[in-house]
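Lecture notes, unit on protein representations.

Consider one protein chain, 94 amino acids long.
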Amino acid sequence: MADRDGATPVYGIAVAAQLAGVPEASLRLFESKGLLTPSRTEGGTRRYSEDDIERLKRVTDLRDDGVNLAGIARVLDLEDINQGLRDQLDADQD
């Protein structure tokens, strides 16, 4: 079996919810609010990657800290932008 990277979708919603420590309904809510975009099979089944699980944990940490869903979306957007800029800087330095 080939090595998978963190972006390879392998977990169904039940397993992802268990790994993240949240109910399945929360995963559906987070998706509906744009906080998470799991892959889908041809039949429409959600598939979550290790990267998705890490993002879920970040969402739940922020929620536990009292940040509302709109605030979480903004924090995640800013973190994604920041990571993109860091990646670009690293690429420019190579």
